[in-house]
Amino acid sequence: MRSFLHLDDLDDDGLGWVLDRARRLEAAPIQSSLRDKVVALLFMNPSLRTLASMQAGIAQLGGTSVVLQPGQGTWTLEWRRGQVMNEGAAEHMQEALPVLEGYADALAIRCFAGGSSLAETLEDPVLRAASALVTKPLINLESATAHPCQSLADWKTMDDLDLPRRGGRFVLSWAWHPRALPLAVPAGTLHMACRRGMEVTLLAPPSHVLPEPMLARARAAAERSGGSLRISADRAEALEGAQVVYAKSWGAPALIGRPEEEAELRRGLEDWCVAESWFDHAAPEARFMHCLPVRRNVVVRDEVLDSARSVVIRQAHNRLHVQKALLELMLGARN
Ligand code: CP
């Protein structure tokens, strides 16, 4: 596997190996499997978990990481072909990435959506541009359409908790947020739960249902795994029997690039803040998941985040274990 850009870049055998190896690495974290290996981490956008867990994981495997943050000590980068670069960006990816891969054994990149349109978001143009420029292993650390390392960690988290794969009841709920957030995590989460074989409900106001190509990919995964996907705007009905409630905010897909109209659409939806009352009767045992960072008492209330049902810290810790296993797989250090 040269690239890990989407969860589907791992076949079932590879996915099973990563999840099993992650469990073994959690028990025995210090290894030498990446000795003499260098991984370049290019962050076009901010991060806490992804940056820290990649650096810590590479160090724990005996490797070295090089962190580059364009605009913060690293030249600002252009990615579009054919640009007259007479504005902000001082360097083009066309030089930067081939240079970096001369120093490193693998590259990893975070490159969020540009926010200009849904069509552009779905094309994932920065990730595609990066992928076309490198020949060494490339890992997606969250792009416009996917956050596959998060998906791996979330899958392992549910395994850790003995939550059923086939037939487990999983609800991905939209939550309110003061800004229109990207689609990568909800799209990746929906696909991950469907591929896991779960009975998945997308709970969202009609204005914020994910775009059809993302739903189609999740449906196809559900068909292959024996899972299912349905869409609901009825909270009580959707939460009935849920074993997992995964909250995330995202912008209205149809209004990407039109932030004022999108904000108008979100007005009045502030009660989409996950509260303990959501679980009272319909889902008393359900676990609460979120990829973090999360805005307390905006996306989810303290009473949920601070309760035993919340597994958000376990999710974040699992980023470390699954990424270490993934790096071993991609760098040929499979144990
Ligand atoms: N969940 C996640 O990717 O967190 P960061 O944005 O902090 O890396």
The end-to-end span amounts to 16 Å
What is the H level of CATH, i.e. the homologous superfamily of the largest domain? Aspartate/ornithine carbamoyltransferase
Q: Could you say which overall geometry the principal axes of the C-alpha atoms support?
A: globular
CATH architectural group of the largest domain: 3-Layer(aba) Sandwich
Count of strand segments? 12
Helix/strand order, N-terminal first: EHEHEEEHEHHEHEHEHEHEHEHH
CATH topology of the largest domain: Rossmann fold
Could you name the key traits of this structure?
335 residues; alpha/beta; Rossmann fold; 2 domains; 5-stranded parallel β-sheet; 12 helices; 39% helix; binds phosphoric acid mono(formamide)ester
Describe this structure in a few short sentences:
The protein is α/β, with parallel strands linked by helices and 335 residues long.
Describe the structure.
By secondary structure, the chain is an alpha/beta fold. It folds into two domains: 3-146 and 319-330, 3-Layer(aba) Sandwich (Rossmann fold), CATH 3.40.50; 162-310, Rossmann fold (3-Layer(aba) Sandwich), CATH 3.40.50. 39% of the residues lie in helices and 15% in strands. The protein is built from twelve helices and twelve strands. A five-stranded parallel beta sheet has the order 1-7-6-2-3, with helices on both faces. Strand 8 (169-174), helix 7 (184-195) and strand 9 (199-203) form a beta-alpha-beta unit. The longest helix has 19 residues, at 312-330. It starts with a strand and ends in a 5-residue tail after the last helix. The mean pLDDT is 97. Phosphoric acid mono(formamide)ester binds at residues 47-50, 142, 150, 291-293.
